């Protein structure tokens, strides 16, 4: 919750400084219903941003899994399909314990990053504010994020059993290197 508050405060400050419209929504996690309900309640209580109800959270993550399944069935790979690459990155964020953020303007511009990286960028906005005013928020944020090296990270992509096949090669959403494959069994009691 602390990350959400820090991120929301910093991001709203940037939107105000740049005089841009900004909508935020908390989409939760795929398999952490009680935790998501608790966080959603706190977000609404503190009026930090919008937060989706359980059904919409489920539909969001289920749609991403369906897109991955469809792309895999059609023989798409991360090398030849940018959408599959982005879907896998989003699913990897769901598998992590950290926050994450995606910023976009329609289908034109998009930038995404893990929580630590994006919060660090938001909190150091004074370093790239001039650039944001020149080239726009998303391109400037992308440039800022590219300048942050993340020497230590552990990215997990958890695919459901019924995902329609395991992709042969999976690229890390953070650094682009090939990920190692493991089998994982999980019991998450909330």
From TrEMBL:
<dbReference type="InterPro" id="IPR039299">
    <property type="entry name" value="SEOA"/>
</dbReference>
<dbReference type="GO" id="GO:0010088">
    <property type="term" value="P:phloem development"/>
</dbReference>
<dbReference type="InterPro" id="IPR027944">
    <property type="entry name" value="SEO_C"/>
</dbReference>
<feature type="domain" description="Sieve element occlusion C-terminal">
    <location>
        <begin position="1"/>
        <end position="188"/>
    </location>
</feature>
<protein>
    <recommendedName>
        <fullName>Sieve element occlusion C-terminal domain-containing protein</fullName>
    </recommendedName>
</protein>
<dbReference type="Pfam" id="PF14577">
    <property type="entry name" value="SEO_C"/>
</dbReference>
């Amino acid at each position: 919750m602390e990350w959400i508050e820090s991120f929301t405060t910093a991001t709203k400050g940037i939107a105000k400084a740049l005089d841009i419209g900004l909508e935020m929504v908390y989409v939760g996690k795929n398999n952490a219903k009680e935790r998501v309900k608790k966080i959603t309640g706190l977000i609404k209580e503190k009026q930090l941003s919008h937060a989706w109800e359980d059904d919409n959270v489920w539909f969001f993550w289920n749609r991403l899994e369906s897109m991955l399944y469809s792309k895999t069935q059609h023989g798409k790979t991360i090398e030849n399909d940018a959408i599959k690459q982005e879907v896998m990155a989003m699913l990897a964020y769901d598998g992590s314990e950290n926050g994450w953020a995606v910023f976009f303007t329609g289908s034109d511009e998009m930038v995404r990053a893990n929580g630590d990286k994006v919060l660090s960028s938001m909190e150091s906005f004074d370093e790239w504010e001039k650039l944001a005013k020149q080239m726009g928020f998303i391109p400037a944020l992308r440039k800022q994020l590219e300048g942050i090296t993340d020497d230590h990270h552990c990215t997990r992509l958890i695919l459901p059993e019924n995902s329609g096949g395991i992709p042969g090669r999976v690229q890390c959403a953070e650094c682009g290197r090939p990920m190692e494959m493991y089998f994982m069994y999980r019991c998450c009691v909330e």
